[in-house]
Design a protein that fits this description.
With 486 residues, the protein is an alpha+beta fold. The chain has 11 helices and 23 strands.
């Protein structure tokens, strides 16, 4: 009897799935006809609006900082498939607040090309398959299912398929057979299984197809694009060529790629600078090791940990000092959570780091996820000192620092070394200083002067490409000051 019941249950599941799949095909076909998917091979559209830099907010409770898109043009070939974006962006936060390589002086051209092949990461492919017409094409080619849902009193057919990263991709189709929203999750080394959502509205006819005139994309809960479309060309002649080399990767992805090597330089007895990526300082205390900064990714953090253990064998890494919570300065933190280190950060960041570092990371599990480790966060206020009588690290909160409200600098009084993040990011030695000077650099200088720190060497976390030694004199020259700091 039990076997018969199980068999009937299994049959019911199969039938339910079959009906769902059949219904999905009908829903996809109806939406495709309404939106002109079958005849839309290419599209090119122009827009203006805003883009926002992921993970670079001025504090944990603010959205990502915005930049103005003076122009935005995108061409998509759904059959190749391929995409090319050309845009011109300008400073959007005035005065500058947050990261994202602010301030942008003048007009900044940005472009991105993706030509999908067998090696193209799923996250890049989603730039095409998250578009309404791309979603319907992808759903038709995969084993999509459908479920009727009512959200806010509005009825939708929610079509779902599984992406190459094993995350569900959901498309919300309204009673007019238009795709209003597409959502999924993508891997992020800091935010874990990060929500990725696109919202489409104000559909209009465009050469036999329906196209949204307002596009919003969100990642990590906040917008990364908000575009008002001004012109659409259906089946335009587009020629999208793959960039030389592998190419095609967004700037953020390229920036996240770490170097495998983590060479070190002795700054003093028991004090080492670790380079090869974002700069890290390791200090050998009597019973433990403290590290200042974590690296920009888990592979970079693991390389830093390995070098630290080579330099100081048989000692635990007790503390990891996080200068601030921006994504590129926190994407290595999970490796230190797995290591069992306590993370010291400013009190502004504490709750945010506790929450973020506890988020699920199942799409590409990191060591903390695999080990089931939870973060241990220690907050500081305006000043904190670590010392064993031989070595000392003084931590200071930067006041009136517009890059991040919870920014910490680390000063080693014995070595007269200052580690700072994003106050001064060295350019080529021959580069021309910006005009006006960066408010971040001016604020850093004001804080060093306020704290009366005797700095002989500065270690920018964004270390100079030529590996030169940076001094306060270089920084004051860069902003056109004289005699304002050591």
């Amino acid at each position: 009897m039990l076997k018969k019941s199980l068999a009937l249950f299994g049959l019911a599941v199969v039938l339910a799935w079959t009906v769902s799949a059949q219904d999905a095909k009908a829903v996809i076909a109806n939406a495709s006809r309404a939106m002109g998917v079958d005849t839309l091979k290419t599209v090119q559209y122009s827009a203006t609006g805003l883009d926002f830099t992921l993970g670079q907010a001025p504090n944990p409770s603010s959205p990502w900082p915005k930049f103005i898109n003076k122009s935005y043009t995108r061409a998509i070939n759904f059959e190749t498939p391929a995409s090319r974006v050309d845009r011109v962006r300008m400073q959007g936060e005035n005065p500058p607040r947050g990261g994202g390589q602010q301030p942008v002086v003048g007009e900044q051209p940005v472009n991105q090309t993706i030509v999908v092949n067998t090696d193209t990461p799923w996250t890049q492919q989603l730039e095409i398959w998250m578009m309404p017409h791309g979603f319907l094409r992808a759903a038709a080619a995969r084993n999509a299912t459908v479920e009727a849902k009512t959200i806010g009193g509005k009825k939708y057919n929610v079509v779902t398929f599984v992406g190459d990263n094993k995350a569900k991709v959901n498309g919300y189709i309204n009673d007019q057979n238009l795709v209003e929203r597409v959502e999924t999750s993508i891997d992020n080394p800091f935010l874990g299984d990060m929500p990725f959502e696109a919202i489409y509205s104000d559909y209009k006819d465009a050469g036999g197809a329906k196209f949204p005139m307002h596009i919003i994309q969100k990642q990590g809960g906040y917008p990364i694009f908000d575009l008002n479309v001004s012109d659409v060309k259906a089946n335009a002649a587009v020629n999208i060529q793959a960039p030389q080399g592998r190419g095609g990767a967004p700037a953020a992805a390229a920036a996240a790629a770490p170097a495998n090597a983590a060479p070190s330089e002795k700054l003093g007895d028991g004090v080492y600078l670790i380079t090869g990526g974002y700069a890290v300082i390791a200090v050998d205390f009597k019973d433990y090791i403290a590290l200042i900064e974590c690296g920009q990714s888990e592979p970079r953090a693991l390389a830093v940990i390995a070098e630290t253990k080579r330099l100081f064998p048989n000692k635990p890494i007790k503390y990891l000092i996080n200068t601030h919570s921006h994504i590129d300065h926190s994407s290595g933190l999970r490796a230190f959570v797995a290591e069992g280190a306590t993370i010291i950060t400013h009190q502004v960041n504490k709750a945010y780091l506790e929450k973020t570092l506890s988020l699920p990371h199942t799409l590409n599990p990191d060591k903390a996820q695999l080990a089931g480790k939870k973060p241990v966060i220690e907050a500081m206020g305006e000043k904190k000192v670590l010392t064993d009588g031989t070595h000392t690290i003084e931590l200071y909160h930067l006041q009136n620092f517009p890059h991040h409200d919870g920014m910490i600098i680390a000063y080693l009084p014995k070595e007269k070394v200052l580690l700072e993040a994003d106050g001064y990011n060295p350019q080529a030695a021959t580069a021309t200083p910006p005009a006006p000077a960066s408010p971040f650099t001016l604020s850093l200088l004001d804080n060093v002067q306020r704290l009366k720190l005797d700095v002989q060497r500065v270690v920018p976390v964004h270390y100079p490409a030529d590996n030169r030694v940076v001094t306060m004199a270089e920084i004051t020259r860069w902003v056109g000051r004289t005699g304002s700091a050591n």
